[in-house]
Amino acid sequence: MASASPTRAKDIPAKIVVLGESAVGKSSLALRFVRRDFIPNQEATIGASFLSRSVSLVDESPPVTIKFEIWDTAGQERYRALAPMYYRGAAGALVVYDITSADSLRKAESWIGELRRNADPQTVVVLVGNKCDLESMRQVSIQQGQDLAEKEELLFYETSAKDGTNVDALFTNLGKTLLSRGVIASGVDRRSTMSRNLQPPGSRTPKSEQQKRCDC
Amino acid sequence: MSAATVLDVLQCLHGITQSSNPYKTAVTAGLSGSIKPNMLRSVYWKVYLGILPTPRTKPASSQALLEEWEETMHEKRKALSQQQASKNTPNTAPQQEKKKKSRFGDSDEDEDEEAKVDNPLSNDLSSAYNKDFQRQKLEKTIAKDMERLWSDDPFFESDEVKANMTKVLMDFCDEDTDDESHIAGYRQGMHEILSLIFYVVHKDAEFVHQLKPRMTELDDAQEDDFSILQAVCSPSAVTQDAQLIFSRLMSTRRGLGLVHWYHGSISSPKVSASPTGTIQVFASDTSDNAVVDVANAVQTSMIKAMDEPLWKKLNQELDVQATSYLLRWLRLLFVREFSFSQASVLWDAILAEFSWRVCEEDEENTYNIADSIVPHIAVSMLLFISNDLLEADYSYALRRLMRYPPVEDVRPLLAKSVERRHRGSRIALIAGIMPQLQQPSAATITTPLQAPMPTSSTVAPSQQSVGFGTLPPPGTVPPQQRSTVAASPSTAAPPSLASTYGTTAAARKVEVESVTSLRDKQLRQGMVLASIIRRMEGKWFPDTSQGPLTDEEIAKSDEDYIVAIAELKKVRDVLLNSVSE
After folding, report:
1. What does the UniProt keyword field contain (chain B) (predicted)?
2. Which of A5-14, A156-165, B540-549 reaches the highest mean pLDDT?
3. CB-CB: which of B289, B327, B393 is closest to A6?
4. Which of A1, B83, B133, B176 is deepest in the core (most CB within 10 A)?
5. Do A44 and B188 touch (CB under 8 A)?
6. Bridge-partner residues for A53, per DSSP?
7. CB contacts, 8 Å: B147 with chain A
8. Which residues of B touch A50 (CB under 8 A)?
């Protein structure tokens, strides 16, 4: 076995899906988190892309490492039919809007609705207002974002994929929430409740079960 | 490419027009991957897509055919302009239109209907206001994608190019609503398809234009031909020509119907794959999502027939969703997976195959892109990285599939795809076209390859006897790449399409298996080397972003290192062996 980044023994995998309107910065957000990089004019995502990064949460006891397996989806509304493939079985979902576009917040609301109806109820949803570096062009106030998040009981962050604001904080906090709500769990049996709900354990070993989890 | 002279270009043009079968000559060039950069690729594409009429018998004169081409392009561009002019009713002034209508009293519509059409509050999608609103929305959507299209390429940075491409996409959406299949609308990815077309058409026009000062080197007859070429590849008609090509590529009626792979809900022939890896098409069935079906067929039955361990790895062990990467490969016809010049070579073959099937079989367009060379190219791509995938874990496998490794030369991959396509085809589509390329050197190479090769049991006998056209060996094509892979000495070796169909079935099986072009082998070995290097680097430059390695991991990386050296020796043996042969 060889791999550029081997899954470490203690890593807890967590499937995360990134949803939201076209050009709100979904790919940029994922790239900022995984590669600590920002590319202006990130090309449109066709189909989906996949990125992963492990993060150690040292203040948990015992300390744990979460391997975020991020599915970054295509934003164009017309491709929505394919989205369930990515949010099914996801431990977390980032619903991203662009703070300089009121319209993108409305799209985010409809994504939240879709997740409520079709995703696993345990999926932790984070509302993310991206491009917060573009303060002068702001169309959505922080309050509006917060109100929506409170109403829907979501985590909420304003981020900037460009300068990195809040990106690591978002994922760290999401990881902690996943642990505290038991969506993902450390321990001997590392299969999450989520994957057990979705895939009745058969003859699979825990390892393949985990792998199964990331692409349903 | 700087070496090409005005005479070279004319020679290339005459290669088609002076041939005893211009049509077959063009199709053969496309399927064999022998169209060179700056050698009028856009002319070939226009031939393949039926935009330029191309005879199957020797034309009365090359001159006459060229004149017909000039005339045809002129007419087609004119028709396009007229179509656009008639469509471009002033969209900001529906009121005026109404007045005009009543003044001339030329309307058969009753008053109710007229009122409804112009009511801004109407929900009717066909109301002028609504249409205008939809149009603006569409323009905004396209602009968003256009803004970030190949932002590292100066050609696409030009506002003019962006505006022209937007215009073509807008027109396509308008025009599309008239299509029988009621397919409408722009979808992300179409802009990338168009970008390659624009690029190819523009490059030819620019190139021909640049050669203009050198017309003095030509005699009178040549000068005439060059003038015609300038009209066929006119810099002022780049947008229109790109539009003609794009529209054929998308169109269900007269083209490849690529639009099927963008719109999920339209009905299209249902596709499934037989155990031999041949895609069967059941025209009566309909599918919810054509591209999803093809993606699944590629990763399951087609791969299973070619490389069972890989099939097992992807579908059982890792359980990779075929659509996660294949949607992009297929929808964009590999534009993102390769450099522009490499993708163009793949497109040559895709369009040439279309041309051959449509024109050869019958009048009706029975071409179905799901049952074309396209899925076979995807299969070849998977087989080429089979080694890497077989040893990968889930994350690594996905990253490999999402970011296809740069290849030095795409032609061996194409040759394999054409070969498999031909073999699996229900109707021996490429009969008489399969180019017979030099076999001697390649045919004797029997060194086993690292990557699993098709086993004899998977070789479906061609279902019809096959004739051959002969083709002069293709010249060498300098690699035109965005990638950073250094050009290797192998550039001198022509790609070999190992056609062995003249032999008996039994002998053929064996030969198909053992005959692999030198390039093909080099490419595979290069990929094995890349994988070895990666692992060796892992030993010395471990990923410590997640903290220091555990003892277990250190032990594992030692083991990897030893395995890597063993593999390195194998590569050496394979390479030395082929050199001695």
Report:
1. GTPase activation
2. A156-165
3. B393
4. B176
5. yes
6. A68
7. 41
8. 324, 395, 398-399, 402
Which residues from chain A sit within 8 angstroms of residue B264, using beta carbons? 81-82
Contact A46 B264 (CB under 8 A): no
Whether residues A2 and B535 touch (CB distance < 8 A) is answered with yes
Cα separation, B88 vs B97, whole angstroms: 13
Tokens of A210: 């985990």
Of B228, B229, B97, B235, the closest CA to residue B164 belongs to: B235
Q: Do A43 and B188 touch (CB under 8 A)?
A: no
Which member of A74, A81, A82 has the closest CB to residue B188? A74
Beta-carbon neighbour count of residue A94 at 10 Å? 29
Nearest CA in chain B to A4: B396
B267-452 maps to CATH 3.40.50.10610: no
- Provide φ and ψ at B494, rounded to 5°: -70, 150
Q: What pLDDT is attached to residue B97?
A: 43
* Domains detected in chain A: 12-181 (3.40.50.300)
Give the integer Cα–Cα distance in Å for B128 and B232.
38
Residue B43's nearest CA partner among B63, B21, B64, B66 is B66
Domain ranges in chain B are: 3-83+117-260, 267-452, 503-581
Structure confidence at residue A76 (pLDDT): 79
Of the candidates B405, B411, B408, B414, the one whose C-alpha atom is nearest the C-alpha of residue B387 is: B405
Q: How far is B246 from chain A (nearest CA, A)?
A: 19
Tell me how close the Cα of A185 comes to any Cα of chain B, in angstroms.
19
Could you tell me whether strands A92-98 and A124-130 are parallel, antiparallel, or unpaired per DSSP bridges? parallel
pLDDT digits (tens, 9 = 90+) for B505-528: 333 333 333 334 555 666 777 777
Mark which residues 22-51 of A lie under 8 Å from B by CB: 22-23, 40-51
Q: Closest partner residue to A3 among B185, B328, B392, by Cβ?
A: B392
* Contact list, A26 vs chain B (CB under 8 Å): none
The structure tokens 């699944």 sit at B296
CA dist B199 and B182 (Å) reads: 29
Residue ranges of chain B whose pLDDT lies below 50: 1-2, 91-117, 178, 180-182, 265-288, 426-516, 579-581
The CB-based long-range contact list for A58-65 (8 Å cut-off, 24+ gap) reads A60/A176, A60/A179, A62/A186, A64/A10, A64/A12, A64/A179, A64/A186, A65/A8, A65/A10, A65/A11, A65/A12, A65/B546
Nearest CA to B573 out of B489, B450, B488, B454 is that of B450
Instruction: Identify which of A47, A78, A214 has the shortest CB distance to residue B323.
Output: A47
| Residue A126: CB atoms within 10 Å | 22
Task: Count other C-beta atoms under 10 Å from residue B489's C-beta.
Answer: 7
Q: Does the beta-carbon distance from B393 to A42 stay under 8 Å?
A: no
Of the candidates B450, B452, B454, which has an alpha carbon nearest to the alpha carbon of residue B528?
Answer: B450
B176 contact A CB<8A:
no
Tens digits of per-residue pLDDT, A13-41? 999 999 999 999 999 999 999 999 999 88
Q: Give the number of A-B residue pairs with CB atoms closer than 8 Å.
A: 129
pTM here is 0.72
Query: Angle B340-361/B41-48 helices, nearest 10 degrees?
Result: 30
Band of pLDDT at residue A163, cut at 50, 70 and 90 = very high
Tell me, what's the pLDDT at B342? 95
